[in-house]
Amino acid sequence: MTISLNPKILIIVVFSFLMLCSNYSAQQLGRYELVSINFEGNEKIDSDRLIDVITSRESPGWFSKFLNSISENWGNEIVYFDSLLIINDLELLQNFYFDNGFFKSDFSYKYELDNDALQAELTFIIEENDPSFFSGFQISNLDNIIPPFAERITEEIIDIDTTERYSRQLVEQKIIETNRYLRDHGHMLVSNKPPVITVDTSLNTASVFIDYDFGRRYKISEVNVNKTGEGKDLVSKKLVRDLVGIKQGDYYSFYETERAQIRLYRTNLFNSALVTGTIADTLAGTVPIDISTDIGLLDELSPEILVNDDNGLNLGFGLGYTKKNFLGDARKLSVSASAASQNPIEFFTTFSLTDTSLYGYTDARIAFEQPFIFGYPINTTLESFVTLQKRKEEWNATIFGAGLKFDFELPRRTYLTSIQTYLRWENSEFIFKERFIRNSLNVFARIITLEDTPEQDSLLSEIKRTPLDDLPTISRNAILGVNMGANKTDNLLFPTEGYRLSILLEDGNSIPFLASEIGKYNFKDPVYYKVVVSTSLFLPVYKKKTSAFGLKFKVGHIHAYKGLKSNISLNQRFSSGGSNSIRGWNALELVPEFNTANVEDLLNLQNFTLQDFNSLFSRGLTPGGFFNFEGSIETRNRITDAFGTALFVDYGNTWSSYKDVQLKKIAIAAGFGFRIYTSFAPIRFDIGFKAYDPFDETWITDKSKKLFNEIAFHIGIGEAF
Fold this sequence. Notes:
- The protein has 721 residues and is an alpha+beta fold.
- Among the domains are: 7-127, membrane protein fhac (Ubiquitin-like (UB roll), Roll); 133-213, Ubiquitin-like (UB roll); 219-295, Ubiquitin-like (UB roll), CATH 3.10.20; 634-721.
- The strands form five sheets. It has a 17-stranded antiparallel sheet that branches. The chain has a three-stranded mixed sheet with strand order 1-3-2. A three-stranded mixed sheet has the order 4-7-6, with no helix packed on it.
- Strand 13 (314-324) and strand 14 (332-341) form a beta hairpin.
């Protein structure tokens, strides 16, 4: 006889058996499961903060206990009530309240035991009473340092708001800022005693006094260099000293030693680098600086596997060669080549620019980089590149050019955290394929309305009879740009509070246009500017730093102030969709169907000819828009140190002009993702759904929709914003 058992019933039976065994074990031991911890009377401080203060913990949920009953490596084990922890918890709560200005708070507790279910509930009863506020902040021996330092400390660093509730964390923060300021200005051995807090319970005030020993103000006596590693004989000590930039006779600065290490690492010459002042060797107000470096080989060959989601999942490989300390002075020469395709085997074995069934790209670059220019720490890069692109049944592209970029090292206490300026020249040629042309011609016919005249009827007939051969467009751009950024978040890789701001300003072709005016020759390419402003805001919605809630907003505009903006090349235009954009669509999928700017150019011509039509129509084929705005709402949850999840909603689109923006043309995507956190950046897997499609103006709930056609998969390095 054969007995079949439903798997769901089997799971329930097993789980019930394990829970019965667990309860039986608890009964045998006489232990109570701690199912609930509550707080009463805490009006000023949330319970979520208090639960992190105490050592007692609630027992996990049933599923976590079930997993743990199978393997101790899964889920979490049952937590039992332990009355011995309560006294310690009361002390922890009292210390926490004291640290936050509640010096008159009082604490008690109660608990209930359920003898039948063997469960316990623990409640802490809190009388917060009135908090105390700062009344003053004093530091001793300020007359032992020079007056400007004393003024800076008293008037800026330790200046306190008397309407602010006392906080030990704020006191410690001001001590750290004071010590950091003094160490950055020569007082490397500054020290302080624990702060003395005087509380007036009748006035509800607290004053802070800190006894300081500022020590001497030290100058640099010498800069010593110690080199190890395989390439130690290939880098001179003089070069290391020049990179560090600390000189004999300078006042010691902890900030300068930190910045010196960053400069050393940026050259990629060193496997490790450490810049320190040697306290043991201080003498008569001087201290030596020791630079310890480990230098690797100066020739580096680096193969890589490429994975991106440009219009689908693409696989490929790249190979790079780097010559470090090229021509001395920490210069670097880099040569790289890469290629990727949706079908790598077919792409690499049968690659041909005339084959319309393939999709992919190849790219080759050579770059020359140096950390200084004219003696200033401005990282300078000169680069040349060539790129070949193929999009199936759409276009072939050849783009080549060169660029010069300056990355400035910014001083402390500036609002901006990065500034890059650059000059780039590029030539791009796009050859559009017949199917793509036919699709665009159909869209063009829907947009344009010609007057019914014999001349235009004749022109339309001629247009229809014209063979649709491949249409090439060639454009050249000389771009002068600046990219400014400010990062005010609490964490570089996983921000939970603060914001980021980025502003990109570009001018296209003003330099060759001015040259044409001086040289008295005709310049035909458009002269334009581009502005892109993007910001991301992280709100402290969650109590724990393992979760984050963020918002992103981005807007961009391109305006041609001389010539036709329809002549601006594809790689300079905007598009939406992709892993860092609206994730319900792949890259370059959210673009205007046909650029209305070209329709306007065409209608502005009087008695236009077939040649006029072909010229403007070919420009209109170029996908991409001139106005873009996007936004995102995302919540990220870090489940473990190495793994996390995310939920997101993206919205926005790209238009030919800001005048074309309509609410019904805003795309909306929703989805979820997974994160694998590494030491350098998170690896991101996102699945996005077209919640609202602006092309047919329908929602995903429409019955005509096929779910799989509304999904886009994305892989990325780093968060979307």
